[in-house]
Amino acid sequence: MTGDTQSWRRAAPASPVTLDDVARRAGVSLATASRALGEHPHVAAATRARVREAAEALDYVASPEAARLAGGPTGRVAVLVPHPSRWFFGELIEGLEAALRAADLDLVLFRVGGPEERAAFFDRLPARRKVDAVVVLAVAVDDAEHARLASLGVDVVVAGGRVAPYPSVGIDDHGAGRQAMDHLLHLGHRRIGLIAVDDDARASAWRTALADAGIEPEDELATTVAWGGEGGAEGMARLLGLRTPPTAVFAHDDETALGAIRTLRRAGLRVPEDLSVIGVDDHPLAALTDLTTVAQPVREQGRRAGELVAAALRGDLQEPLAEVLPTRLVLRGTTSPPGAPR
């Protein structure tokens, strides 16, 4: 009796092999393994063969859920965007759409600017699974939302920032901030104000650049405002209200910088003779208004994200990667040494 029991225990089957096991053995994502076994047309032949070999080696039997995930391709990519009307996001979408169109994929836009819109997307899309991939445009994803995205069984790519653990395309925001700050410091400015939109990498660059130059960052010189021109105008008014205003201002972005310049001109101050201003982006209005800025390749970020999606659907994207595109200082007419003559 005892021997029979021990024999039975030795012969007991192991835990069922899952699609996750196959994906790990083949060295691909769960979504790629699902598509490879489901005859998805965008999967590369070599990847499909590798996944099939892994499935055979593990004696994998597809479950109903795996079969659902491996259903036919939709040819659609969901794009999560918080503010589609803003220039930055519009540029990202332009580049993304062009790359997806070249890969025979359609873009489906989901606005997730507010809590209700975000909840609607993350609650409903997993049950429907009407897309082959998801692109997140500069949106932070919390743990619950990450779990929802994982439940889709599709590839996720991020553009305009970085959200772990997904492949992403963006810029070094801290580096861009340092380019702006180092320019002002090289001109001789020591009392430099900050108009921030958030306590982000660009705001951090303001502090570290001052500290590296041996200047103690003063809290009164940093103000946080709502994004855009009106926020920039308000932030500049606060800085002008200081007993000793700054001689230069680093604004989070060009639109915020232009709002700051409006306040300066209404106050009868000259730019850059009385106060220098620099932004980030190289918004089309920056060239028209002669704004000194740090340019970032926004449309290129969208295009590269679209190419990453196409590569992921073919099974050619083996590991998550963070691609960082370069920024560059664009010298125009809103910065000069402090107290420069007209």
From TrEMBL:
Keyword list (alphabetical) reads: DNA-binding, Transcription, Transcription regulation
- Protein name, as recorded: LacI family transcriptional regulator
KW Transcription (keyword) present = yes
Which molecular function terms from Gene Ontology are attached? DNA-binding transcription factor activity; transcription cis-regulatory region binding
Q: Coiled-coil stretches, from where to where?
A: none
* Domain of life where this protein originates: Bacteria
Under the heading Pfam families, the entry gives: LacI (PF00356), Peripla_BP_3 (PF13377)
Among PANTHER family, the record links this protein to: LACI-RELATED TRANSCRIPTIONAL REPRESSOR (PTHR30146), LACTOSE OPERON REPRESSOR (PTHR30146:SF153)
Membrane-spanning intervals of the chain: none
Where in the numbering of this chain does the HTH lacI-type domain appear? 17-71
Source organism per UniProt: Actinomycetospora succinea
* Database matches in InterPro entries: HTH_LacI, LacI/GalR-like_sensor, Lambda_DNA-bd_dom_sf, Peripla_BP_I
